[in-house]
């Protein structure tokens, strides 16, 4: 079935007559309505913003720790317990599954 443009226009005219909306209301140019956008940030979002800013402000590499570890490894005094390594591996695996 092919519907022509004139058929669509006739349907629209009929529909608008049924609604009684074939009158066009003009807006007075002097009475422009302006709507302002409002933005409300929740307290949780404000805290998140502060945390993110603090993270951005911190150094990625803590040179004091790096130098301390470098000296301990060079001197042969750096040791890590097997228990600590296993514990961190399990913690990381749990976090990875949750996230």
What does this structure look like?
The protein is mostly helical. The chain has a domain at 45-99. It has four helices and no strands. The chain has helices at residues 5-19, 43-57, 63-75, 82-98. The longest helix has 17 residues, at 82-98. The chain is elongated and about 95 Å long. The two termini are 54 Å apart. The relative contact order is 0.04.
Show the helix and strand layout.
Blueprint lengths: L4 H15 L23 H15 L5 H13 L6 H17 L1
Sum up the structure in keywords.
elongated, 99 residues, mainly alpha
Number of helices: 4
- Tell me the series of helices and strands, N- to C-terminal: HHHH
Q: Can you tell me the overall shape?
A: elongated
Percent of residues in helical segments?
Answer: 55-70%
Report the sheet with the most strands, covering strand number, pairing sense and barrel closure.
Answer: none
Structural class label: mainly alpha
**What's the overall average pLDDT, rounded?**
83
**Unreliably modeled segments:** none
State the distance separating the first and last CA atoms: 54 Å
- Indicate the proportion of strand residues: under 5%
Number of strands: 0
Q: What is the CA-atom radius of gyration, in angstroms?
A: 35 Å
Summarize the structure.
With 99 residues, the protein is an all-alpha fold.
